[in-house]
Amino acid sequence: MKVYLVGGAVRDELLGYPIVDRDYVVTGSTVEQMMQLGYQQVGADFPVFIHPETKQEYALARTERKSGQGYKGFEVFSSPQVTLEEDLKRRDLTINAMAKDENGIVDPYGGLADLKNKILRHVSPAFSEDPLRVLRVARFAARYKHLGFKIAPETLSLMQEMVLAGELSSLVAERQWSEISRALGEQAPAYFFQVLRDCDALAVIMPELDKLFGVPQPEQHHPEIDSGVHTLLVLEQAALLSKKPEIRFAALLHDVGKGLTAKEFWPSHHGHEAKGVALIKAMVKRIAVPNTYLDLAVKVAKYHGQCHRAFELKASTLLKLLMAIDAFRQSEKLADFLLACEADARGRRGFENSQYPQAAYVNEAFLAAKAVATKELVEKGFQGAEMGKEIAKARVSAIQLVKDAQR
Hints:
Blueprint: E1 2-6, H1 8-15, E2 23-27, H2 31-36, E3 40-42, E4 48-50, E5 57-60, E6 62-71, E7 74-78, H3 84-89, E8 99-101, E9 104-106, H4 111-117, E10 119-120, H5 132-144, E11 150-151, H6 153-164, H7 173-184, H8 189-198, H9 202-205, H10 207-210, H11 227-241, H12 245-253, H13 272-286, H14 291-308, H15 315-324, H16 331-346, H17 357-370, H18 375-379, H19 384-406
Helix pairs in contact: 5-7, 5-8, 8-11, 11-12, 11-16, 12-14, 12-16, 13-14, 14-16, 15-19, 16-17, 17-19
């Protein structure tokens, strides 16, 4: 029996990254032997065990064969005769196919060289057996973009072949969203979607987003012109402003309705907000997006234009905006909304470092409206619907004072 540290832990240690999870591969052992040593098996179809003390994962060395059955569509074969090299060969990228023992690094597939040369390269043709790897490679590209990592041309070509062959159509919604949500938390999430587009996968995974590319916007407001380019610029800005994936997701989809504008109306996109809301609601059902993401994305898509024009809005309209965002019940929703809108304003060529005074103004209006005292209204005998009307009037008056002070 021999134990090796494998995969991401080895990669991240070499990169100087903090190690979050440690996974181990065991060679020369059986399920029965592992159980006798006190390890707890996880699942019947997969030879993975939990260490009795550290609770870390230990997997028996194994090979796999795509079958459409078993664990995620693969038949798993494990025996004491399966070597470490055979186990590592089934992994996705060479930088993830290294192991480590007391004697040092075991690197049968050139992971060390690819790590040094900043290359994301598939280990073997078995890469194509799991379509989720297209999304995984894009996610690793987003994680390490700031370090200068590039996808090997042959790997990108293989990803394109998999897309062309229709392999991605077999991905269940939960697996798609798992990778998308993790990508939104990476260092450069916009690059994830760019890579998907480079290998034609974006049109399969998120066709609503892919349709934005090539759709023009008015140049005086959008020097970058292209709606798809603008969308990725907005996501870049959102990543700089916040680490919250919900904000990044909302930024990504804020203009998705522009993909439905008829060509004869280009570069104008009247009504794209409402169109975007409908698209977002359909998309989140298709790829199993949690409601917390849906809520903010819908609000940003529907109201970001109003936020940009905040100084022009009447006090009563600004109050309606605050209520629509549900700011009075959950103020953090307003903060998230304003960050996504700021990302939109900055996500334009030449505007990356521009100020967004609308955020401070809207927040000041909210604080003034929130400070309205209801005690006096109660003492005056207002109840029910009448009380609601009086509170609204008082809040409009408070917002108007803020508005007047801006002049």
